[in-house]
Amino acid sequence: MKFSAQEEFGLRCLLQIARLGPGGSLTIPEIAKHEGMSPTHVAKLLMILRRDGFLVSTRGQQGGYALAHPADRTYVGDVLASLGGKLYDDGFCERHNGEEECRHHVDCSVRALWMSIQSAVDGIVATLTLADLLENKDVAPNVTLFAEPRRPLNLK
């Protein structure tokens, strides 16, 4: 399970631009300064986000990067997919130990946990927009992964 630095920093770069509102734009050095990142790293992230249609760029003295779509129509799930992928990659079970098939494939005790977590995360980020993040909206008020245990565990 992972949430990569690329996903985190790319999302933060987009949020810096989104804070400016419609038509606002920032340059690579401005974003780098706001986020405490190197301009080279910011440029790499913005290239990915522009390529995948989240940003538009303008050259010249008044140039910079702006959102390609309004913040309330830019979904966090799409951004994260562009920057990296999923928290839980079910392909991990097929290759983690170098064997053709995981030796615990039939009775894996943790796969259901990771799949449930991924499903919950997917459900949240699929409907969450940049505007929601800027408003500090409660992103998952009613998320329940598992029911409470019926009896306490005896760990003695």
Description of the structure:
The chain is mostly helical. The protein has a single domain (5-134), classed as Arc Repressor Mutant, subunit A (Orthogonal Bundle). It is built from seven helices and two strands. The protein has helices spanning 5-18, 28-35, 39-51, 76-83, 92-95, 111-127, 130-134, and strands at 55-58, 64-67. A two-stranded antiparallel sheet has the order 1-2. The chain is elongated.
Biggest sheet strand line-up: 1-2
For the largest beta-sheet, the strand count, sense and barrel status come to:
2 strands, antiparallel
Number of helices: 7
> Are there runs of 5+ residues with pLDDT below 50, and where?
none
Give helix % range: 40-55%
Derived structural class: mainly alpha
- Outline type: elongated
In angstroms, what is the radius of gyration?
20 Å
Q: Tell me the fraction of residues in β-strands, as a range.
A: 5-15%
Provide mean pLDDT, rounded: 81
CATH topology: Arc Repressor Mutant, subunit A
Say how many strands there are. Answer: 2
Write the CATH homologous superfamily.
Winged helix-like DNA-binding domain superfamily/Winged helix DNA-binding domain
The CATH class designation is: Mainly Alpha
Termini distance? 31 Å
The second-level CATH architecture is Orthogonal Bundle
Series of secondary-structure elements, N-terminal to C-terminal: HHHEEHHHH
The number of domains is 1
Summarize the structure.
With 156 residues, the chain is mainly α.
Question: What are the defining features of this structure?
Answer:
two-stranded antiparallel ribbon; 156 residues; Arc Repressor Mutant, subunit A; mainly alpha; 2 strands; single chain; 5% strand; 7 helices
